Amino acid sequence: MANYKLLFFGKIPSTQSYAHDLIARRGAADHTAVVAAAQSAGRGRYRRTWVSHHGNLYVSFIFDAPRRDARRSYAVAVAVAESLISLGVDAQIKWPNDIMVKGRKISGILIEYNNDFVVVGIGVNIKSNPTVSASYKTTRLGRYCSASAMDVLGLIMKNLDIWRSADFEKVRTRWMALAMGINKMVEYRGESVQLLGINVQGALMLRRGNEDILGYGDEITINEK
């Protein structure tokens, strides 16, 4: 944790919003981590609510990012998955940025750009997990091992430094090894397509019949049997 500036809070509306406010106030620096024990207005992709009770990990990292690069999200996903794997958990990645265990979501990632910075929000269910719906299943780390939010934070920071600096081909290879649904049929934009992986630019590679297509941004549905 030595190379990170850590800002801890008992409860704030959102670590992600605080990080953006810090950037707006010109108080941001590379390798800043905003950590909260709980959030009152946590959010995920598409501004979905992220239920944020005490006992879980809620952190937003601020990194220098003079250029936008969609491939950053893969390095972050691999770093989070590897952190859980090091605890003996069989973590997988669901495109684009969910970390899953046994088909249930355990962690989410939100990546947003702001001027010359990127804000990387990460939430990990440790002590509790929300009940969302029958089709949206979640789980928590406490079911599989004994680790605190600070334990997980330390592992994630270490792995972020490793994977963010890695060559993308290495990231891509590891992401493909951890990804759910590779070479299986998935649903994309209401169609059944085969998931092939990601290309060197970070686009999702899909096959629709005899046609190869690329996907960007949209979510996929994986029916794991």
The whole-angstrom Rg is: 17 Å
Q: The CATH topology of the largest domain, please?
A: BirA Bifunctional Protein, domain 2
> What fraction strand?
25-35%
Instruction: State the CATH superfamily name of the largest domain.
Output: Bira Bifunctional Protein, Domain 2
Parts with pLDDT < 50 across at least 5 consecutive residues: none
Give the overall form.
globular
**What is the CA–CA distance across the termini?**
40 Å
SSE-based structural type: alpha+beta
Quote the average pLDDT.
91
What's the total number of strands? 12
Which CATH architecture of the largest domain would you pick? 2-Layer Sandwich
Largest sheet: 7 strands, mixed
**What percent of residues adopt helix (DSSP H or I)?**
10-25%
Number of helices: 4
Order of helices and strands: EHEEHEEEEHHEEEEE
How are the strands of the largest sheet arranged?
A: 1-2-3-7-6-5-4
Give the number of domains.
2
**What is the CATH first-level class name of the largest domain?**
Alpha Beta
